[in-house]
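Record pair follows.
FIRST:
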Amino acid sequence: MNPNRRTTIKDIALAAGVSPQTVSRVLNDRPDVAKTTRQYIQKLIVEMEFSPSAAARNLVRQRYRRTSFLPGKIWNDDEGHPIQAHGGCILYDNGTYYWFGENKDTPTKKNSLIGFNVEAVGVSCYSSTDLYNWKNLGLVLPAVKDDPRHELHTSKIVERPKVVYNDLTQKYIMYMHLDTEDYQTARVGLAVCDQPAGAYEFLGSFSPNQADSRDLTVFKDEDGKAYLLHSAEWNKSLYVGELSADYCQTTGVFTRNFINASREAPAVFKRQGKYYCLTSGCTGWDPNAAEYALAENILGPWKIIGNPCLGPNANQTFFSQSAFIFPVSGYSDAYIAMFDQWKKEDIGSSRYVWLPIRFEGERMVIEWIDEWDLSIFGS
């Protein structure tokens, strides 16, 4: 082949031994292609450096362009590929939203402790200015393939990445749950970067306040202080710990909360001087009832209010699990709750459920809506 000639769909089809229509169906993420065939074609696309023309890319972007949220439906990026950002978070920075999350685009396998899992791929990042349409910025923290001893090796657990900006150091700080395949080490991973979507430098891991740490989130308060909230004591309790000025370590100031309640997947936000903490029960990949609590101090004490969900399957959190809650820029009293709708036998195809939060006084309500847009928050 002429090295100066652009690789075409026909070239890919010839190498794969399939029709050009089959390659097009893979490029357009059509479901009617066998998984092994799809994976082989995707491999060839990378190896042969296939790149669609600008016109073709624009057509794809128009085809997948969204103007609303569709909870539980397939959510594609602007190139038509399903978004891979599970257990993630949103960072708003200089007019752009960044969505970080676990890339689970790899075959699901059996796991003796939780039934199913996948090999680690790394942490993905997507960007958007409207929250509906997302551009894939790639892996900002890829898994390590060639060193089985590394904490980011593909055989390990890399979950629930959360990113905050430190005003003092002007660094973006990423926290994540790191673990062995059998979930025995339960440590907090730490990575830093000079820009929101750059290549994050992995700094290692630690045990916050000498405790185990599994599901986690990080909350940055209005005064610039940040706190790590994580399931501890084998998920029996939830710790809230103050972070150091550079956000790279805990200070030793912490509290134990929801003791023996077995809560995980914390999502925290602050509204009108009150702190809200949404959690799920501990049932592996299977859904359960969400629960939220209120506090006047993030360190507690926390008052349990109950399940904020309303609508079909509210007692199972709409078959999903909490991931993150964030305020919407440009709107007053507007918050979106992010959930993962896990598909345990094909984890990479798990869906996202984003829903608006409404308030009745201090009471938080998350009601199921089949389709909605930001106009729900007013002008």
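SECOND:
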Amino acid sequence: MNLRLLMSGFCAAAMSLGGLSGATAQEGGGGGASAGPAIPQLGFHLVENFFHYPAHFTIGRLSGIAVGPKGNIVTLNRGYHPVMEFKADGTFTGSWGEGSGMFEGAHVIRFNPQGNLSYVDAADDIIFHFDSEGRTIGTLGTNPEPWTWTTHVIEHAARGKAGFYQETDIGWGKDGSQYVADGYGNSRVAKFDKDGNFVKAWGERGGARGQFNTPHSLVVDNNDIVYVADRGNSRIQTFDSEGNLKQVWNLPTAPWALCLTNGPNPVLFAGSVGKVYKIDIATGKILGQFGRPGRMPGSIDSIHQIACPDEKTVFIANLYASRADKWVAD
């Protein structure tokens, strides 16, 4: 498991460098990059010292952040206090997961349409679904159990179609279907029904249209369009609910994280290394950008997850800076 995480970290570092020197234009309908107009700068500023968790908490790499239906905020990190919860004003309300081994590969967290939390455990190839009080109510994927390798399970055997290989994200359709970005190893999108039964999968590793090189983030809009951050190819690809390719949008730098604003006319925010893009979901046009790279307050690190309850509010999980930030429009 540690070797797998080491390799994932190596790939992430490579993506950080590659993202800064990637394509320099966007394409609404796909194809290669071409010269385009300068991207407008958005007026966003950091809300300083927004999150007030206890002094001397040891925070590991901060990989996840999500905003609940009541405005509550949950963060995810790979340290001693993996899951931390806050009120809408940043007041700390508690933490959980201390002492558990299930957060070694903590990747992202998401609230489903019913307002319940899901946790993506990339190291153990499993996604946990919790109820409103934090009880586990279901899972997707199967985590490896080394004790079985001496009896009835073949170590490192090929995974079944419903199994993951370091999955990265999850989203939901209107009918409860679950879409998983799978991820570091499989480079595909897997679809499950509302009961967790495998339906289908699409994509494979590569750079052609419909292929992926680390599908790192995924969101689904009100029309069941699936948006996939194809990080290694520095682009976003969109699909219908059956996996049919719709559009390919090349970005100037690699997209690490995606979020959709709430409401009938959502926009897409894409987090990269040191930068956030605001994107029109109808055309793929970049409406604007903000941010500068760095690991100190006021700068933006590799954005491992991003949350955007509205067009004027963006929450960022700065992975290597081990910091959660709130940014708001001027």
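COMMENT: Residues 2-329 form a domain with the Neuraminidase fold (CATH 2.120.10.30).
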